[in-house]
């Protein structure tokens, strides 16, 4: 496969309500930042891929209106939309389109403006016969699966709270993040409002307004334009049954993420991910999911995630920092959240992470999560 | 998967469900029907499919991440699936990119649209600029009327000609489509949709699902995928010339460059996604000499039934079948469009095997 790399990234300021910017303006803010980071002009971009979930804002074909913000006029442009994985899937689509030889450069822009819609309503439009009444939105179905996960693996509320503390503390070092709480404590997390047992307010991701963009380039272009490209070493996507009741032990098994991660590890030559990866940006919509993902991603054995977070293995000074950006728990414009994961992983390879930089990061994992159990995995490296 | 790609991409199989004015089946049932037909046509099994690319639009389906409705019936459980929210031909273009990239060897492309359960005019109104245009009640039909009016002002005989074009398309589509044939004078006498377009000039909305199997090692197949191009125009109607289609021009030029074809290289078959007759004029403007001797929509094109955002893949299905049946046609241009006044444009070039 033709080599491709990420040579620039850009993000907006993410917030609960960005009423200072329309959707196209948010898109432009991120797109312009990514181009500036790559030291390219709009004319240097061959194609554009957008990601967004239109029912969250109630706009049909939002890319038709917001595409101009991504400098897409007069260029090949299409939108990828697969729920939470929209952003990672749009990145993978861009990798494939550039790798096909059809384009030398592609701009990916993910965006969402939850403040202009009603996200819970958008997420309630699941299967109308079985799921809508009992498992709509992110909260209800996660509460069910988390209870099962806690029972089977012995994960505790306190261990989940440690994930929340790590995320919000890391986010304080990220100038783009939505929720920043450098002083938050485990006790405060455990004292936060119960939403649906066992999930508390501080366990959940926010709804954010924001956008994130990246420039993807062919090998020739990347070597010419970027001193330290983030090379795409492997990608994988796995989708799962659409009815929650058909998914066996969802968080415990998470077979999509297990399979996708094993596929990218094999393609990238990774045998021991905990030892070999330098940093991971994983899509964790709720604290307990991060723990379940540790197990699915092979960072530890099944049942070992609680110990991993207690030992600080995934904190900024641990063996494998997970989500230096603060993750989805701190910033969540859904159409952009997957792009942010890949962009933050690329930023680490670029060595431009600022206060959230992991020293010497050369191999990074980014993942996407969507619907009930869809998964994307991407491995980036400092070497092709 | 990392496929060492040699040779060309081939259209291995096609299938469709509908078009129907109101299919009583659910979307998954319609899609499964189309997919099983395509797999049967390609003589492949579910396990032979490496990846799936789908096209659908959430607001038409009333379902967030609307591909969630079809994950099982497209065989995407534990497989890579990419869902494009645009015309179905874009899904095929992305699938061809995956094949060219060597990411997979066989891709299933699926698009569905069920107009009977969607308030199309309302959804299309929600697709225009919410600040300046939505408050005016603008939708895709009213913008099409503006385009047609501009063409009429230059050519006073255009409307009468369109009456004949629509009558011809409807007659060709009637045996397998959702609407009856209409005489040219009745096309012109129908109630006004958006002056000068009449309601009979609009392709009838329909329910349909289409499926196509594309294969990397397509040299031995009767129909080859040669090249493609797509483009996004400016959004505001006031920001672009409505009496021409520069976006279609760019998409076509990209496809020709990619195929190393001269822009006037002749096509034997055109399968355009023209919802209104003036759009054929705009297409002819772009293609010029390339379409002089081409058969245009022999099956009636979208007048057989216009399934929202599935139509472009439907054109691909029709073109592939016709090239297989009539290889003497040689080269076909397939066209998809989405958005107001064809803001999004996509074309693909197919060739019959020599």
* First-residue to last-residue Cα separation of chain B: 31 Å
At CATH level 2, the architecture of the largest domain in chain A is 3-Layer(aba) Sandwich
CATH superfamily of the largest domain in chain A: Thiolase/Chalcone synthase
Poorly predicted parts of chain B:
1-6
- The rounded Rg of chain A comes to 19 Å
Instruction: Give the strand line-up of the largest sheet of chain B.
Output: 3-2-4-7-1-8-12-11-9-10
Name of the CATH class of the largest domain in chain A: Alpha Beta
Count of alpha/pi helices of chain B: 10
Would you tell me the structural class of the helices and strands of chain A? alpha/beta
CATH superfamily of the largest domain in chain B: Thiolase/Chalcone synthase
Multimerization state: heterodimer
Distance between the termini of chain A: 11 Å
The CATH topology assignment of the largest domain in chain B is Peroxisomal Thiolase, Chain A, domain 1
Strand content of chain B: 15-25%
Quick one: overall form of chain B? globular
What does this structure look like?
The complex is a heterodimer of chains A (384) and B (354). By secondary structure, chain A is α/β, with parallel strands linked by helices. In chain A, 39% of the residues lie in helices and 18% in strands. Chain A has 16 helices and eleven strands. Chain A has helices spanning 23-38, 54-57, 62-66, 86-99, 119-123, 137-153, 157-171, 186-191, 219-225, 250-253, 255-268, 273-276, 287-296, 305-310, 327-330, 334-350; strands at 4-11, 47-51, 77-80, 105-113, 194-196, 199-200, 209-218, 230-238, 279-281, 363-370, 374-381. In chain A, the strands form two sheets. Chain A has a nine-stranded mixed beta sheet. In chain A, strands 5-6 form a two-stranded antiparallel ribbon. In chain A, α4 (86-99) packs across α16 and α7 (157-171) crosses α13. The relative contact order of chain A is 0.19. Chain B is an alpha/beta fold and 354 residues long. Chain B folds into three domains: 9-118 and 206-215, Peroxisomal Thiolase, Chain A, domain 1; 126-201, no CATH class; 224-352, 3-Layer(aba) Sandwich (Peroxisomal Thiolase, Chain A, domain 1). Chain B contains ten helices and twelve strands. In chain B, the strands form two sheets. A ten-stranded mixed beta sheet of chain B has the order 3-2-4-7-1-8-12-11-9-10. Chain B has a two-stranded antiparallel ribbon with strand order 5-6. The model of chain B is unreliable at 1-6 (pLDDT under 50).
